[in-house]
Amino acid sequence: MTIVLDLLYGLLVCVGWPLLIVRRIRRGPGSLALAERLGRVPSRPVASHCVWLHGVSLGEINATRTIIGELHRRAPTTAIVVSSTTSTGLARARELYPRLTVFRFPLDFSFVIRRVLRRVRPSVIVLMELEAWPNLVEVAHGAGIPVLIANGRVTEGKSMRRFRWPIVRWVARRMFSRLAWVGAQDETYAGRFRQLGAAAERVEVCGSVKYDTAEIADEIPGQQELADELTIDTSRPLWVCGSTGPQEEALLLDAYEALRSRHPELQLAIVPRKPERFEEVAQLIVQRGFACLRRSGAPPLVPPDIERPTAVFLGDTLGELRKFYALATVVFVGRSLVP
Questions:
Q1: Model-level pTM greater than 0.70?
Q2: Structural domains in the chain, sorted by start
C-alpha cells in the first residue's frame, strides 16, 4: 500500500509544483522547510522511551500543554518531541517548549516517514484531533509503534464527506483500523471514528483537553498594554472577531457598518486566523472606507477622500487573541459564517 500512496503523492507533486513555487514566493524561503519535510529532523535525546506529539497548527499545539504537563509529571525520564505542520504551529511549539525537540511535520512519503522514525525512535505517536496520514500510520504499525489520536474530532461537513469518496474511503478504513487508541471529544465524534474504521473497543470519549488549558480571570497580562498601544477605548464597547477566515471579514465589516447607525460608540477588532491573510484583510478594511490600525506597528492605512474615517483594529500578530478577547464586550468566533 505504501508504494501506491508514494506514487500518488509523487503525481500530486508533479502536478502541483507551480503552486509550491508561488507559496515559497508569498510566504518566504522558510515556508517550505524542505530538509525537515524530507525527514532531516533532529535526532532525539537518549532515553529509554519517547513520545512524539503532533499538532497541525496553533490551536492543536496549544492543546498539547495538558498532555505534555502530565507526561512530565508521570514519566519525567521519557523524551518528548513535538511536530507541527504550519509555521504558526511551529513557532508556538518552540515558544511553549524551548527545551524539547521541535520540528516541522514531514511529507507522508513512506521513505521519509521511515527516516523520521529512525531519527526520533518514538515509543508511541500521538496525533492531535484528526491529523492522521496513511503512510505514517502504516509504517508505524509495521514497526510496532502504536499511533493514538488525542482530543479527536471529525467534522461532518468537511472530513466525513471527504472520507466517503470511493478510493479515499478504502484508504481511510485501513488507516483508522490500525490506530491503537482514539480519545474522542464527545460521543458524536466517537461514532464517526468508528464509522471510519477505528475498532469500537479502542475508541473512548474523553472530553476536550482545550478546556483543561483555559484560564478564567477578570484580566490577563498584557491586555491593557494592547489597548493602550492600539488606542482602543476601554470605556466603549468592543466587538472582537477572532480567527476569521476568507469571505467572513467582508460580511463582518458590512454588519459593523449597519450596527454603527444604532451603536455609534461600537469599536471593531478583527484577528484573522492565518497570518498570510493579514495584508489582504488590511486592504479590505481600507476598501470598505475604514482606517486600519495594525497591532504589528505597521503604519496605519487610511482610505483616500475620507476626511475622518472610523478606525478598525487589525490583530496582525501571533499569540495575542486572548488579549483581544479579554478586552471584548462581545465576541465572534471565526470560521462559523463561511464553511
A1: yes
A2: 34-213 (3.40.50.11720), 223-333 (3.40.50.2000)
